[in-house]
Specification:
62 residues; mainly alpha; 2 helices; elongated
Length: 62
């Protein structure tokens, strides 16, 4: 089982990746392939967030 410190680190990394993907997505108006791929990245990061960040939030409230 992953301990609480690992959950926090994973949550921080996912948040950082999401910010990066959002920045790329915002810059990609003239580059459709980047726009599509960053949309996919953001969807995948949302799933990671559901898996990890939500569990991290639950661990902090207990």
């Amino acid at each position: 089982m992953v301990d609480e410190a690992q959950f926090r680190k994973m949550a921080e990394m996912i948040t950082e990746m999401r910010r990066t993907a959002e920045g790329l997505h915002a810059m990609a108006d003239t580059f459709p392939a980047v726009k599509r791929n960053t949309s996919r990245m953001l969807a995948s990061l949302k799933m990671l967030s559901i898996n990890v960040c939500d569990l991290d939030d639950l661990a902090r409230t207990e």
